[in-house]
Amino acid sequence: MPIGSLSHQYELTDPDVQLMLQVRDDNAPAFEELVLRYQSRLLTILEHAVGSREQAEDLTQDVFLRVYRARKTYRPEAKFSTWLFRIANNVASNSRRSSRRRRETQLTGSPADDFGPPALEEFAAAASGWMPTKRLDRTERAEVVRLALNFLNERQRMAILLSKFEGMSYDDIAQTMGLSVQATKSLLSRARESLRQLLEPYIQEGARPAREATK
């Protein structure tokens, strides 16, 4: 479909695109409305992506700042949410690369922990007193899953987050992450299998997750 036709389609069908077009025309209340609609959703995705609430808050502000700065060149060639989370994905990737470079520069002893505090092994050790057959309640299960996500590589983690928290289709995730649809399907399949291998023995038996499962 030609780009012009796509733009017209999203202008007609996506209310957030309509708001962003008003932002393009310097409508401040429209921008405030977009912030209200997406702030919490962005914060959730970014917190899981970078492992820090405080850092996620800063990155969320950065995303909205980039949206505002890009308003004059905005063209609705995708759903607004897809365009927004593409920016968020780039911001998160840049942040993690910067963090890795800082750790490498400051490193004087043991290897840097790239999985964010606390590591899944630490959580497993702290929970070693649980009965092996104990079923995790919802809060515990959510915490274990959150920590397990840290063992996925950056692209797998973001794909899972967009699928789980945003309910994005393969096509939307592909557009957000700059991948083909087939590559996105493969990426999500590998990510889900890695999570399954990590979580299944832990939830069923209380066993310490094997880090090798995601390699």
Your description of this structure?
- The chain is mainly alpha-helical and 215 residues long.
- It folds into two domains: 1-112, RNA polymerase sigma factor, region 2, helix turn helix motif (Rna Polymerase Sigma Factor, Chain: A, Orthogonal Bundle), CATH 1.10.1740.10; 113-215, Winged helix-like DNA-binding domain superfamily/Winged helix DNA-binding domain (Arc Repressor Mutant, subunit A).
- The chain is 71% helix and 0% strand.
- α2 packs across α3 and α3 (28-50) packs across α8 (154-166).
Q: What labels describe this entry?
A:
single chain, Rna Polymerase Sigma Factor, Chain: A, Arc Repressor Mutant, subunit A, 10 helices, 71% helix
Total domains, how many? Answer: 2
**Computed Rg:** 20 Å
Relative strand content? under 5%
Average of the residue pLDDT scores = 79
**N to C succession of SSEs:** HHHHHHHHHH
CATH A-level architecture of the largest domain: Orthogonal Bundle
Number of DSSP helices? 10
CATH superfamily of the largest domain: RNA polymerase sigma factor, region 2, helix turn helix motif
**What kind of sheet is the major sheet?**
none
Q: Class of the largest domain, according to the CATH hierarchy?
A: Mainly Alpha
Q: What is the number of E strands?
A: 0
Annotated CATH topology of the largest domain: Rna Polymerase Sigma Factor, Chain: A
Derived structural class:
mainly alpha
Low-confidence stretches: 108-134
